[in-house]
Amino acid sequence: MKKTVYEALNWASSFLRSHGLEEPAGEWLLRHHLKANRAALLASFHDDMSEDVWLAFKADVETLPSGIPVQHIIGSESFYGRVFSVSGDVLIPRPETEELVEAVLERLEGTERIVDIGTGSGAIAITLQLESPGTEVTAIDLSEKALNVAQENAKTLGATVRFKQGDLCQPVKRECFDVIVSNPPYIPERDRASLAEQVREYEPELALFAGDDGLAVYRRLATELLEHVRDGSLIALEIGAGQGNAVKQLFQEQFPKATIEIRFDINEKDRIVLIDVRL
Asked: What range(s) does the Release factor glutamine methyltransferase N-terminal domain occupy (predicted)?
């Protein structure tokens, strides 16, 4: 039985609502299958869908109660106005991380050496390079599979980024940077059970968890970054809500002359720590 675009979307919304899931996921999937932006989708509400497209769309919607993120079905997520490929090997880019990028861009003059530690999909590194083309950007990740995703994103989007595999700063020994940016793992192990299923079961553990208190990677960075900064360097970190003061203290101990700012996100949660290094 043929369905119009409107009928298909209405069915998806009802199905998702009955399973306690977010209804916008239905629209994202429908746009994906119709290869249409939102304006085109709305304009086609009364058009009939082909049987093949309807059945494929219906099958994808019916997988969502399993917990799989819609971005993994679609294979992409938007970030800072660009579409990035994603998979189960990388963290899905979040809107809060766009605010970290914005905080860094505010400070750039356009010729800086930048390193992104724990790059994942490459969203931060690629965005910074494309928004400030004169910069020299390096992106590091421990996961070879994550780097493969990031490199493919850089190629698709036309970004010039140097990729290195290794643990935190290890691949860039004896190198100094003007900007060091990182969205590291920061979820405490004790919070594992309370995470949403689609995060806990489908996103990489390596990008999520960081010891009993979630601060394990920040402790390492606070120590290791001493060898990679110069006077005037900027360290920009995304943090978990409620971690601002603890992360600030860790870096203040290692960089006693630094000016450290905690920024809050659009949801009024502490989300970014900016360290202006003074040696």
From this structure: 7-75
Would you list which residues are annotated within the binding site?
Answer: 118-122, 141, 183-186
Same domain, 41 and 149: no
Termini Cα distance of the chain: 71
| CATH number of the domain encompassing residue 127 | 3.40.50.150
Binding residues for S-adenosyl-L-methionine: 118-122, 141, 183
Cβ burial of 180 (10 Å; 0-12, 13-18, 19+) is buried
Q: Which residues are annotated as a binding site for substrate?
A: 183-186
Domain of residue 152 covers 76-276
Residue 192 phi, psi dihedral angles, 5° rounding: -55, -50
For the chain, 279 residues long, the average pLDDT of each consecutive 10-residue run is 91 95 92 94 94 95 92 94 94 92 93 95 98 96 96 98 96 96 85 69 68 88 96 96 94 97 93 96
